[in-house]
Amino acid sequence: MLGTVARSRPRVVIVGGGVSGLATAFDLHRRVGAAAQLTLVEAGSRLGGKVVAGQFSGHLVDTGPDAILMRVPALTALLDELGLSDQIVPQAALGAYIWSRGKLRRLPAGTMFGVPERLIPLLSSRLLSPTGLARAALDLVLPRRAVPQQDLSIAELIVPRLGRQVFDRLVDPLLGGVHAGRAAELSARSTVPEIEALARKNRSLYLGLRRLRRHAPPTTGGVVLASLSGGLGRLVAALEARLGAADLRLNSTVRRVVRDGGGYRVELADGTSIAADAVVLATQAFVSARLLADLAPDATTLLEQIPYVDVATVWLAYPRSAVSRPLDGSGFLVPPQEGKLLVGCTWASVKWPDLADDDLVLIRGMVGRRGDRRWLGMDDEALVRAVHAELVESMGMTASPVDQRIDRWPQAMPQYLVGHRERLDALDAALRDQPGLYVTGAAYRGIGLASCVADAGRVGAIAAQQITTDIARKGPRLAADDRPSSEVTS
Ligand SMILES: Cc1cc2nc3c(=O)[nH]c(=O)nc-3n(C[C@H](O)[C@H](O)[C@H](O)COP(=O)(O)OP(=O)(O)OC[C@H]3O[C@@H](n4cnc5c(N)ncnc54)[C@H](O)[C@@H]3O)c2cc1C
Q1: 437-439 and 403-414: which strand pairing?
Q2: Secondary structure class of 278 (helix, strand, coil)
Q3: Measured distance CA(361)–CA(288) in Å, rounded
Q4: What pLDDT, in 10s, does the model give residues 221-240?
Q5: Class of domain 107-217 (CATH, top level)
Q6: What is the pTM of this model?
Q7: pLDDT per position as a tens digit, 40-55
Q8: 3-state class of 110 per DSSP?
Q9: Whose CA is nearest to atom 15 of ligand 1?
Q10: Which CATH number applies to 308-414: 3.90.550.10, 3.40.50.720, 3.90.660.20, 3.40.980.10?
Q11: Ligand 1: residue whose CA is nearest its atom 21
């Protein structure tokens, strides 16, 4: 329960204790300090949301996200500030494979979201047929094409420049691996903004990409993807530790947010409510849609238009002797038109030095992408059998796995379909009548953890501005706190 001191300060309620909610709380705490009471409300019994660790074959593994993108300045700044920079564990720089037409083929070095930077590695990977390669090379000589102003799908952007094969065999599998989506439906502007900008500015995508790489600021030590020593839970723990006097409430499900005088009332499933001057919804878009149904129905409609895809991760441990091929990569991705269940496969004990094992090879397969729900009908044993069969086919496994772990992630991957940016603009407009109400999270401006941190900083800055100006002018709300909602409404 909050005391009288808390009530004399404006209160910000952050709903959702995943990385987005935690990073927003941390950002606000840093900006406004003790000037506001921060309350973070999480439905589950732990913080971190999808960042979660578990045991597998004697190792502590990140069962959800396992890598952070070090190219995003907001993330590296946060790691610095949290004192985690010396805990960064780079992913082994071994490159990856694509499972295409019956073989694992090298993903050409230097691609960005599957768009190649050079033709020679593309040639030697034999990913494309001679005609596909010739079509891809045309990008070097084709005249400039005007890119229409409206949002395009990634297919509409890439195919006219590099041809169908680059799209099918490189771009689509890479985006499947990150978004569990189909690149023919995903918005180019929201999913691959760097590539979209390149296509607008340059006659040739290759040359544009090469120029971009030449001028890109270097990442810390050249590391692109990394984990933290002990796993990504370190980030969650460090954020929590730095939240000071914030009021963290676990096992508290928010049911809805309603207007209450000049502020809001956050109603919980247990019948209590929390009065707030500002509310940040760091929940999944479909949850935020429900929470706002009474307050902002237009926002609810827009939030419901962001679909999510179910995925599962299948961990298998093989005796070393069962793997005859060299494990000289971080794993492989699978183009959707191959018709396989696997979307991608990480050779975890090779990719992460912390997971190296003398006796076992640890593999993590991912299944589930938009339009492919076959695995949903399978029980764990059937799923393991199916994934193992695909590993026999792709990697030549000669024995069965000796250990397994399955994590199912329902409604896990938000899809930025064509028109996503326009939907976000409309969402901002729909929330304009609700001052002090914000949404953040993986559903909006970047699906990865690094982008979630960046968006949390954006929302934190706006909310802090509101706290220091608007609320200072009006004074904090003096509404009842933490009482049963029946009391508040009566
Ligand atoms: C299998 C998998 C692998 C991934 N791999 C990577 C990767 O390697 N790198 C990467 O950068 N990203 C990866 N991602 C994506 C990344 O994990 C997510 O985008 C990110 O964790 C989202 O964080 P978030 O805080 O926005 O949402 P979440 O982590 O989903 O947090 C939302 C929180 O809100 C809470 N909540 C929901 N409803 C309520 C309610 N009514 N009241 C109160 N609380 C509520 C939930 O319990 C949850 O804790 C992966 C995702 C999955 C599923």
Answers
A1: unpaired
A2: strand
A3: 40
A4: 667 899 999 999 999 999 99
A5: mainly alpha
A6: 0.93
A7: 999 999 999 999 999 9
A8: coil
A9: 448
A10: 3.90.660.20
A11: 50
